[in-house]
Amino acid sequence: MTPAELSRTVLRSVRGAVEEQELSVPVPARIVVQPPPRPGCGDYASNVALQLAQQAGRPAREVAEILRKRLVGSAGIARVEIAGPGFLNFTLGDGAQVALVRDVLAQGAAYGERGAGGRGGVPGPSPVRTSAREPVRTSAREPVREPVRVPSPDGARGLAVAEALGRIRAAAGEALPDAAGAVGAVGDDAYVVDERAADELAVLAARLGADEARWVLLRPAAHDPVRVPERPVQRESNPRFRVQYAYARVRALVRNAAELGFEGRPGDVGQALGGAAAQSLQALLTLLATYPSDIEVAARLRAPDRVARHLEATADAFFRWHDDFPPLPVGEQKPLAVHRARLALAEASGTVLANGLRLLGISAPEYL
């Protein structure tokens, strides 16, 4: 069960409580569920009871109990608990992990892309150099708008952000202007490619490489300064390299497994080596599950930096999990079902890493 599915399940419980007059509140349009702030509090949490309590004129814990009774026994949910003043904590069933991995692998390149319609990949806008005096009409019914020239000297960043946002917005299912092949869109504005901006991006890409140039321009939030390195550093201290290396490591695992005669299959990944706590596993699963919702947020907030940060977190979680749950047999050990399950989870991690890199216009190399 993904966070989006859990959110819909909780929303149905609220709607049912209202329809049966257990609660007298307006049904919210959506309900937010997210990882709990502390380990040991279930897989996900929601403060929906606190939000509804004032409208219902009842204590939050009382509202939470009404919802808890309705949610207990729901498919995919193993346990629902009330914490603190009225938070709902959810522990998913044992099959949730397997279902998540199976879903990611089944969707492949379309995972997280609501607007893809099942296609593998969403092309971003391909801006062309055009005159800033040329008006832009995004549809026959819309009035003509004057395009906005990408600003300089920060033009290279503006251009990189605009290109990435085209891909992210399409992946999130947002409609792009009809003229997206010739112009891009940031917020409600059309833009044209400034000659200077395009030249700045080309110069930066020539010095750092296209991948590093895009990463350093897209990774900072809108209010943060861009720090351009003298040269790209191909080591784990570089977040862009770490993300690409994590993907390359996944592909290496798949190749090595093929040489040993087995492939990934979703299932129980077993226990961590040495009986270590499985926090690394839960952290990785949470990042895989929340990837689609993070793409939607990045599109809504016009913030490609959120995609970059999600990829960083996923790469770091993958490496921690990889050390705790080795996907390949050790020594003379033969491949077991647990190794197939771990390889499948590694492949799902690689799918998310590759999809996110593609949205940013950055390559996902199979060898590094």
Structure report:
The chain is mainly α. The protein contains 11 helices and 6 strands. It is 49% helix and 7% strand. The chain has a 3-stranded antiparallel sheet. Strands 4-6-5 form a 3-stranded mixed sheet. The chain is globular and about 65 Å long. Residues 116-142, 147-153 and 178-189 have low confidence and may be disordered.
Task: Looking at this protein, list some descriptive labels.
single chain, 368 residues, mainly alpha, 3-stranded mixed β-sheet, 6 strands, globular
Can you write the helix and strand succession as a string?
HEHHEEHEHEEHHHHHH
Overall shape: it is globular
Low-pLDDT segments, ≥5 res: 116-142, 147-153, 178-189
Biggest sheet overview: 3 strands, antiparallel
- Helix % is 40-55%
Distance between the termini: 34 Å
As a percent range, the share of strand residues is 5-15%
* Count of discrete alpha- or pi-helical segments spanning 4 or more residues: 11
- Average pLDDT for all residues: 82
Question: Helices and strands: which structural class?
Answer: mainly alpha
Radius of gyration: 23 Å
How would you summarize what this structure contains?
Helix content is 49%, strand content 7%. It has eleven helices and six strands.
Topology:
Layout: H1 3-19, E1 44-46, H2 48-56, H3 60-71, E2 77-83, E3 87-92, H4 95-107, E4 148-149, H5 155-171, E5 184-186, E6 189-192, H6 195-208, H7 210-218, H8 239-259, H9 279-301, H10 304-324, H11 337-359
Parallel strand pairs: 4-6
Antiparallel strand pairs: 1-3, 2-3, 5-6
Helix pairs in contact: 1-3, 2-3, 4-11, 5-6, 5-9, 6-7, 8-10, 8-11, 9-10, 10-11
